[in-house]
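Run: sequence + adenosine-5'-triphosphate -> complex structure.
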Amino acid sequence: GRGGSKSGSGDKKIGIDFPRSDSDFWNSYAKYVNADVKSGSINALPPTNSNNQTDVLVSNVSTLTGQGAKVILIAPQDTGAIASTLENLASKHIPVISVDTRPDKGQVYMVVRADNQAYGTKACQFLGGKLKGTGTVVEFEGDLTSINGRDRSQAFGDCMSKNYPNIKVEAEPTNWEGDVAASKLQDALNAGTINGIYMQAGGVFLAPTLALLQQKHLLVPPTDPKHITIISNDGIPAEFQAIKAGQIDATISQPADLYAKYGLFYAQAAAEGKTFSPGPTDHGSTIIKIPNGLEDQLPAPLVTAANVDDPSLWANQLGK
Amino acid sequence: MSDAASAPPADPAARSRRISTRWLREFSLLPAMALLILIGFIESPNFLTSDNFLAMLQQSTELSVLVLAEALILISGRMDLSLESTVTLAPVIALWLVLPTSGNRFNGLGFGVEWLAIPICLLVGAAIGAVNGFLILKMNLNGFVVTLGMLTMLHGLVIVIDGGQTIFTLPPSFAYIGNAEWGGLPASVWVCGVLFAVGIAALGWYRHGRSLYAIGGNPGAARAAGIRVERTVWIVLIIGSMLAAFAGMLYTGRLGSASASQGTGKIFEVFAATVIGGVSMNGGRGSLFGALTGVLTLKLIENVLTFGHVSAQDIEFFNGVVILVALIVSRYTSGAAQD
Amino acid sequence: MSDAASAPPADPAARSRRISTRWLREFSLLPAMALLILIGFIESPNFLTSDNFLAMLQQSTELSVLVLAEALILISGRMDLSLESTVTLAPVIALWLVLPTSGNRFNGLGFGVEWLAIPICLLVGAAIGAVNGFLILKMNLNGFVVTLGMLTMLHGLVIVIDGGQTIFTLPPSFAYIGNAEWGGLPASVWVCGVLFAVGIAALGWYRHGRSLYAIGGNPGAARAAGIRVERTVWIVLIIGSMLAAFAGMLYTGRLGSASASQGTGKIFEVFAATVIGGVSMNGGRGSLFGALTGVLTLKLIENVLTFGHVSAQDIEFFNGVVILVALIVSRYTSGAAQD
Amino acid sequence: MTTQDLGAAGATGRPVGGVATAIAVSKSFGATRALIDVDISVAPGEAHALVGRNGAGKSTLVSLLTGLARPDGGQILFDGHDAPPLSDRAAWQSRVACVYQKSTIIPTLSVAENLFLNRQSDGLRRISWRALRARAADLLAEYEIDVDPSAAASTLAVDQRQVLEIARALSFGAKFIILDEPTAQLDGAKIAGLFDRLRRLQDSGVAFLFISHHLAEVYEVCQTVTVYRDARHILTAPVAGLDKDALIEAMTGEDRSERAEFAVAEYTPKAEAKPALEIRDLSLAGVYEDFSVTVGEGEIVGLAGAGGSGVVALGETVAGLHRPSGGSVTVAGRKVRTGSVPDALRAGLGFVPEDRHAQGVVPMRPIAENITLTAMDRLARHGFFTGDSLRRAGSALMERLDVKAEGPDQPVGALSGGNQQKVVMGRALANSPKALVLIRPTAGVDVKSKESLLGTVRQAADDGCGALLVSDEVDDLRIAHRVVVMFKGAVVAEFPSGWSDAELIAAVEGLSGTGTDDPLIAEREQQNIANERPGHE
Ligand SMILES: Nc1ncnc2c1ncn2[C@@H]1O[C@H](COP(=O)(O)OP(=O)(O)OP(=O)(O)O)[C@@H](O)[C@H]1O
Ligand SMILES: Nc1ncnc2c1ncn2[C@@H]1O[C@H](COP(=O)(O)OP(=O)(O)OP(=O)(O)O)[C@@H](O)[C@H]1O
Ligand SMILES: [Mg+2]
Ligand SMILES: [Mg+2]
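>> structure
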């Protein structure tokens, strides 16, 4: 397990790359990772940052291995473009742990992620239930070039058309930009009544949405018939506050802490030469076999007013 | 080919035609806008509603203010890419200095009472413009790449300051300016209108405003005519950056938050709108009113596309097509080659 | 002094100093590069290794090819932002046409045998350059905004074609060019070296190559001297886009995949490297060798920063600072005001 | 203070008084010393000429006297008081007005605004466009400039712009006015009008500093002349006591006897000579109609015409810059595809364009490259040449044309106007042309360089090249074997060698010639005629 002695991994250094530094979620992730690295329990090289650019990721990985990294922990936002890097690392027998995304091709030691398709499905089921199968829902899609965004969109759309054919979904591409979402929502509100909103990233869309609804006097408690049911995605503290204030109804907690914790856990394990096999784990998740390795599917709990104070949620642990 | 000397003596009809097109040029996008409105009207009953038009106006305010800034700078014969980052950085620094040291997720330095946020924000803008001016005018560095470097650096600075988080706590002044309504119109629309009116008046009827055209058209001649070229350009860069900071304030207020990822890539839209609106990238030519029609045209097209339910996959393609088509329309309705 | 015959004999030292600085200009970044290598050497024992330098070279190839393209275009007095999207679009179209209609996650049209991928890719590049040339030269549209519109449109087109997914089934020819090694050096490094050598030779000693300087420096004079200005510029735009398509091929081959998100924002880096390398944004001035040193300098700085363990949060800030500092260094070592 | 005193002061010591005085000023641009310890003093009400070869430092002095640049050393005084600080532009403008050598018209602005640039209104007051247009219309009427005040300045012809600049400078009401080559773009009638006005202003006490390469103009309007050579002051003397040869000697530092003389020569075609350039029925719609001329090998044909006569457009058409609406051009027996510069070049045509800034030189590129620009075809083997072949060819041409420069690698932009023009001429000769088209090849060029440029043309002709020399300058046309005169797009006269200046000028102005031989008298007569016809363009 975790916290294996430093000598266990010997001088096998872990190379870490962060995917981007301009989003709440990834900053939280980076904080968790850095905390563990600083605590000395992990023998890691100073982390690099690829700023959401694949070629920077590729050159960072090569620099990290150049500096002697024997295990690589990355979060490739473009799951295809990393393929040849993975092959290259495999040829050097350097195990790779991929956080958040499952590379399309190339050997990985372990993928640590919550299932993005499950996010979309959960959001669909929540909204479908609340709206009792009818109404109009606006979906703020991320970027079509992002695998996570695509997975969420697809799962949400499939689930809606299958289970709630009477709910009209207005899927709005936003490129993960808050002002685009706000404009689209404003247009949609002008065009007719909106009953529900699914925002694929709370960090980006929450504030603009709330500001606009406030201005339109639509930010009313769930008891009011004008209330728009909103489900968000990420699980950052601002969303929790909004849930408590009755402004939004739910969010899906994407476990930044678990990403960091188990990313490092498997990195450590790889350094120590451990192996894993498919099946349930000791931390409430399941490891499944994927074509190019294994994947630990972490739970992504749905957070509503009922469980928003649960101390085990990562957003509630911040600042502790 | 410069064959002015030997060109056939201009016949008077041609000459007066030329003069009248010079005036028409400012209005050259109006027919296109009318056409777009017609298309939108056919598309959806919800298009031609005051709600929709108000929404369009409100959504255009920040871009309009940026276009105002860039138009002033382009008319003076310069360009500034870093406006995009100023939009984000200025409010973030203001929040950072003003927000209390504890109690929020993002803790500021608690330096001042909250009403200071707006002046600080504008001051940060002014400082950025001053630095750009120093690098371009005093150190003689290439303006495109200087402001490109600043674009990256200032965006990086936002991340250094806020750690990449979104700041959700705003001082009331920001929230007010972004959301208030005055007489049924959003406050930001009023302010934006006033800024344009001031700009148009200054560039149309005041000596110092007119000097921007002289500077952009021929800086040597402007200098000989007694215009303080460097100083004026510097002031324009500072005003431009202050306008960008102001746009950032509107943005932050409207969206209820500030973050590094807000507005990335906007600068391209700013240039597109400005040039489509008839402002020359080589300086000395164009009008602020024209630039404003440029913004509104792009916004109209975007709105028409939204009402037309263009698929998510195709939207970016259409955005590009839109820029090219608007450019061609503006080229042919104004009748002048672009440079 | 111009009237040398009757002038007081000019101080010969001063004269040779002046002449030599003109030559030195091409090498003005070399001291900075040496300094960077020294810093890297002090920083880490892993810096001054052939592995690290080979990696740097290989990672610079695509940017270098793009810089070569943009330098040619800038020297001819034009600019092209759309190269960034050509990098992505050209390989994607080639793959789309060539890949079989079934059996992969991304299914192509199966139009041709797989070796056609490379020619098709280059052809797509040529077509994009031709369209840019048509819009800029024949329709007299503003080059900055035309290529900006194309940048958006072509990027949108990639998404239309591949639905935003990553394509990672590559024909062997792409994979080969991206990964092969010839004599211990990556093939892409060789090819890139050859392209630069050809470019330097053409601009130095080839008739049509030399004419780019005249065209960029004073198109009117070039026309009066019998140079076919429009045709040459059009060809340069086409060659530039073909080089971008080629860079896209290298990129795709090296990363083993093609996707819309590859290379976004690269165009700014391209401009920064080119201008830092001494190429004027106003045309007629600069050398390809200088441009190459510009790329390598930026890459060296990036590498030194990585080895220096700049924190992830600060990296973008430093990237901006780097552009500004490199710009200042290049300004003062070359001794010429930038424009 | 009299001009005689000034002359003495200039020769012996430092001048002390006058509306404008420069004492021992120096100015360098990098390694170039543009002015070394020079003096000048302009007395009240005096017209003071400043002459010197290209690059002598005249325009540099102008920039110092108008506060655009700061002298490296020395002192500038106005009415005996120190010059205001450089930042106080208004103070400078109240002391001195200037027509700069480089155009200061802003093409994107209207004529009216150009006239009142930066003084459209007082201080922070709102501009009244109507009042401004009215003021502009008055000013334009006063100067008999027939343009609409609200037209964009870009629509004006070069000469109209020049008159606009002059009108603007004179309208400031300054007591001291500098004119840096104001006549370079003007034709006879306009020059006459200008001189008339200068004399009237002078009578009201205004002093002038007048710079020109046309020494006849100096004699006509100035009382005192100062000569600079190679950045130094050479002499200041009353014009009346100085003959033209002595003046030229002061400018060039050479004995008058060394100067080339262009004896008017008869053209005697060799028996087997073919025509070098044949123009048949060439027309450009709305500009000129059915122009035909044959230039024999070794023959120089002058083509004279005032502004707007179409001669420049004709020359440019022959060179391929315009596609004519009809007619043909044949160079040494080979028919040229009209409207194509490269084809004309291949057929063996050399071309000196009118505007050396816009069409002549690539300023930031080396001389060798500029001068061989048309000959890269010939210097290259299979399209390639060595850097050395270029420099060698460049050096040879520089030597042939007597280009004064540091060397073939110096950027052309750093040369003086005359030397730049030599480079343009060199470019025309680089391809060993069989025929030449030269448009105003000596515009803005000093006496000495003019002679050397014309000498080059004569030399090329002697070597068998035919030349069509488009010019309105009598001095240029003197080397021609015959002169064809065009007026408003049609040939109105042809003079064999031995023409008198007066009859030529009369034809150029669209009048029949009169009988006097003195060019100055003839010119003045012309002026009077022109002045009686205010609408004349
Ligand atoms: N801005 C400048 N930078 C560098 N050198 C300059 C500059 N301006 C003038 N010079 C140089 O100074 C010298 C004097 O130039 P100036 O323009 O005063 O000559 P001029 O007498 O006016 O010549 P012309 O008769 O051709 O107008 C020339 O050698 C010129 O090359
Ligand atoms: N940047 C510069 N570097 C070097 N010399 C310069 C520069 N700018 C101007 N000069 C010099 O200043 C002088 C005046 O310039 P300009 O080109 O206006 O004169 P010119 O060639 O005589 O023009 P014109 O044809 O109008 O008489 C020239 O001698 C020119 O070489
Ligand atoms: Mg001069
Ligand atoms: Mg001159």
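>> summary
Chain B is about 70% helix and 0% strand. Residues 1-20 of chain B have pLDDT under 50 and may be disordered.
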